[in-house]
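Reply to dn_fold:

You asked what the input looked like. This is it:
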Amino acid sequence: MSLAQLPFLPPAEQQAILEGAALPPPPGKLSAFDNPPNNNALALAVAILGLSVSSILLLFRAYTRIFVLRTVRIEDAIGLVAFVSYAAYMYCVFRFMRHVGFFVHQWDLQVKAISEFKYILLIGANFYDANILCIKVAILLDWLHIFVPGKTRNKFFWACWAILTINTLYYIANIVAVNLSCIPFEASWNILVAGRCLDQKALDTSSAVINLISDLTIMALAQQVIWNLHMSLKTKLGLSLIFAAGLFGTVSGLFRIIVTVEYQHHEDTTYTVAAVILWAIGEMTSGFLVFCVPAIPKAIGSIGNGIAHIKHYRLRSRESSQKSKSSFKREGPWKSASPDSSNFNRRKIYHPDEVPITTFSSNASPESESAEQLTASPEPPTTGIVRTTRVVTAIGGDVASQGVKLMHSRQHPWMTQQQ
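and this is what came back:
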């Protein structure tokens, strides 16, 4: 019996059918509803690998744009939206793993599980289309900034905009068509709701084919520009490999077409669709490779320079610390007054009346006239201020009077002669 007739049956018959197998098992096989054989381990590995690679690639690009180039453009925001759609698709993958199972035969599922199966495929198709739309727009805009300087309008410029426009219009139309394929909308997944639905085989096949064609065209555009650059062969090969990261996406797209055709012509849909889902992960992950790999060399170079600066700073700090320890052991706790103070002698101080004060040499060791001695251990250095001397001069009244008279006689010699 076709599931399209299920909404028109009495509730009792509906319940009996819902509890039965979604597909009659082959001869000699029995349905295993409780713990059906599956290959969830493979799906889990692919999902984790895809998420890890895409996240790391996006972090490299974000680091380059924010910390190295210090500029963020519109394609970076679109790429972030693509990653959000990618993460949402991964949610569908994990939900499929839990409620249906990867590579689970349809006779090992009950009919009531088909609604969940169809619902996951529906929302997954929307997130897939959103991801492919955004990541290809981001890639083409990024390449326009890389290969088309300023206001140049060459063949590459117009080819990129043509592909970008066609790709955008197609995937917007595809999203609308997927969500309007059944009327009412709930009939798209709920097998208990009667409705009119279009055959989605054409949509699935066209999506896979157009995605493959656009991948090949975008990759060919980049290679043509690279090999026409005035660079050395080695540089061209390096750039060619960087921008050929989408080759994996092309391979994934080709296999996705093959498994999509098999899925559409096979009764065991829950089993055959698993390969379609996994190859779609490969396609989307490849999109992030193409978008982010060109930014990786700059990110690695910047990180390498940062590590080199840190090592240099630590080496200088270690050398400075060793010099400080060596100087401390040699001189003790006494610090030099200046770097050139080893041959320093204190200058003479001349009184206006030419009364000399004895010069204290730094190499001399005069006995202190004070009762307070300098610290004996450790030995004071030969430089710096090690003692002070206070000189008190008392002038008696007679000396002062004679000085005044002498000064007066010098200023008024005629008065002296008169006397």
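The chain is about 60% helix and 0% strand.
Hope that clears it up.
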